[in-house]
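queue> holo job accepted (adenosine monophosphate)
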Amino acid sequence: MSDCLFCKIIAGEIPGTFVYQDDQVVVLQDINPQAPMHLLVIPRKHVASLNELAPDDDALVGSMFRRAAALAKEHGYGQRGYRAVFNTNREAGQTVFHIHLHVLAGRSLTWPPG
Ligand code: AMP
Ligand code: ZN
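queue> job finished
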């Protein structure tokens, strides 16, 4: 999508700090980290929010969660703990309308989130 920030980063038109890439997803360092580890698992396919997911995307979303777990373990947070979360629309604080799985770790994360 031409006016989407994450599509532009994936296309190399805007810089981003990539920590992982494969044919389906990329993983970026969040530009405004909210924890010592704050990564974004982003599908190459543009999907605006969870509301637009289709049955054909089930495997993609599963692979995003499995990638989140792999990264958390790689960074040493598998046992300590981490949070993997999608924000959807205004009241959840979604600001970029291309789905992305936040992966946060490295401090005690409060519950419920604010
Ligand atoms: P959300 O508010 O759930 O839509 O999350 C969007 C996330 O993207 C926020 O945590 C932002 O800090 C992050 N973000 C915005 N611009 C960039 C960028 N250029 N590179 C990496 N992360 C970004
Ligand atoms: Zn996009």
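queue> The chain has one domain: 5-105.
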